[in-house]
Amino acid sequence: MKKDIKALVDKGEMLPLMEEFYTIQGEGFHKGTAAYFIRVGGCDVGCHWCDVKESWNAELHPPTDIDTIVNNAAKYSKTIVVTGGEPLTWNMDPLTNALKSKGMQLHIETSGAYKLSGTWDWICLSPKKIKLPTEEVYEFAHELKVIIFNKDDFKFAEEQAAKVNKDCILYLQPEWSKREKMIPLLVDYVMENPKWKVSLQTHKYLNIP
Question: Is 64 annotated as a binding residue?
Fold first, then answer.
């Protein structure tokens, strides 16, 4: 990457854009609603069950000027979801400032492993054992979404729920490849612990991005 481009990426004025698309939000609190997704490359959290591993290497995704990203988003929706990869790898302030200037509602999906940047209307925190969230993001999370891959993840979910703010909505979501095995356990757990809600990857059932 050329030095001048790298400097812009480091500032958040350009971002390694993997893909952008208009679809239906499939998970969590806003499931079923139309939204424009901005998927930013780069992630070193490295979940072995990640379904977008092609997002991990930022070098594979072209540095894109945030004005281009914003203008594309403005054609489709007022609700924007920034995801990854791990979007907080990068400074989100320039992107969110530009989107806010267009009157957008901004959501982020993050592991919380890096410093919280950007201005957000909704923060979906999906913590990972490999690289835990910063203390700051627990305070601001609107939604906690814990992926259930095995039985030990229920314990991890409770540990994370103890750290978020009192208004944060709690979700358990079965990892897609283990859903048939884990859904019965997850359903029983939520019935026994009704502070939790079930989240499913409904976009996969609908066969949409």
Answer: no
All structural domains of the chain: 3-206 (3.20.20.70)
Q: Is 209 annotated as a binding residue?
A: yes
142-163 pLDDT tens trace: 999 999 999 999 999 999 999 9
What pLDDT digit, counting tens, does each position of 11-52 carry? 999 999 999 999 999 999 999 999 999 999 999 988 887 888
Distance between CA atoms of residues 56 and 4, nearest Å: 23
Residue 128 in marked binding region: yes
39 is annotated as contributing to ligand binding: yes
What pTM does this model have?
0.95
Report whether 25 belongs to an annotated binding site. yes
Is-contact 131 111, C-beta < 8 A?
Answer: yes
For residues 113 and 140, the answer to whether their CB atoms sit within 8 Å is no
